[in-house]
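Give me the fold.
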Amino acid sequence: NNNTTYLSIKDQIATVVLNNPSRKNVIDQNMAGNLNAIFHQLNENEHISVVVITSTAPVFSTGRTSINTKTPLSERKQLLHELSISNNLTRLKVPLIASINGDAMEHGLEIALCADIRICNMSARFRFNDLHKGLDFPMDGGTQRLPRLIGSSWAMDMLLTGRIVSAQEALSIGLVNKVVKDDLLEKTTEQVASSIATGGTIANQYVKESVYKGMEMSLIDGLTLETDLNVILQSTYDRSEGIKSFLEKRPPLFRGE
């Protein structure tokens, strides 16, 4: 593990922690490799309903290792590939919550953008300063996920100015779902994760698929996708267990089938 990341699993909730606070949880090849291995492992684990990604305070992550501008292009491409984690993060089938306990900047913000729900504390700040650090450019989905989340105008504002966005402003532009007092972040995240985990695991996965695939389709195709997933879901165990438990007036025992 090299201690830069760790994973804990409790009650179907997996928590992935960036744990290199002395270096502000900067993403280097070692951390990126560890994270990618963890995401693969979690995607294979059928007993997990929700994943939370967070970090050891006081920051979430302030970016990635800087790449020497003298690095030849082919090596640069390979290095960017090794540092990239957002594809594996967005491939997670189950819902993903980013619990942001401090600054999420540059690559750190790109990670937060991969989550389905973002909760932050009051001291969290957000920024895309890549363009102002010389010859740098977002490389892990920032220019694509940010406008899809907050619209092109706010995204251009953040990307072009490189300014710092406070937690309150992040909430007002839709960059985060919730801002809570610093000491309540962990508890609030747990509550949200638990309320998601009580739903049928398969249904949660289908909702995620339906929303993200549907956003790339025309409305007509998206509605067809929704219907198809619904039909498949009707035939799963969780569906019949849901009905049975309702009739028997007891809490359902979903098992993700």
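DSSP finds eleven helices and ten strands in the chain.
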